[in-house]
Prior knowledge:
This protein is of the alpha/beta class. Helices cover 28% and strands 26% of the residues. The model has no long low-confidence stretch (mean pLDDT 95).
Amino acid sequence: GSEGDNIETVHWYPQPDGTAIADIALRQRVLWGYRADWNGDDLVIAIKKPPSLAAPPESALTGLVIVIDPGHSPDVGATGPLGTQERDVNLAISKQLATRLDALGARAVLTRTANVPVGLYDRPAFAAQQSADILISVHNNALPDGTDPFTHHGYAVYYFRRQSLGLATAIHQAYARSLNIPDEGLYQDELALTRATEEPAVLTESAFIMWPPEESDLRDPVFRDQCAQAIADGVNAWVASTR
Length: 243
């Protein structure tokens, strides 16, 4: 490919196994997404231009499209000891998050607004169709067999692409400030909702729905609101830091 408005240089480094590494230097400070597609024998890499962010004192989120994915459905996800279904809690937090992001000037769009079937890979595809600036998948954690619940509970944030690390870190820090539960960690993991390339994408786990004290928290609308506010605060802080 050739240099464009937001690309400084492109260098290719052939590897012994027949592949090649592309080193693309950008003129922009933050990578907001990209696409890589084959056009016949040509590899076409499109670098997404940064959104035009409003200047202070206006909200940094003004005009941004943020897709919120309430995890699960038709499957229920994890189920707490009292029968609380993760998909219901995910949807409740997602709706509260959308309200907060809208109040900050963003246009929040949900992949589902009820417990209707949505395919796993239809979710990131929907974000791309919406020309999302950011993708957030909202979940709550389970306890796999053999996991010690006394040492594994609390909030966690997942990302995969390097372009998503800043956003994931900001949300993780906001959780730490807002939630009085343990820090379960910030993880790089290739998940269906974190591997998207078109926009920074993260997956949040606000609490462990299978751990009784945190299931009780998640049944409380006030705690769910704190989770939504923490995610919104993290998104706002990261976007503001990029302008």
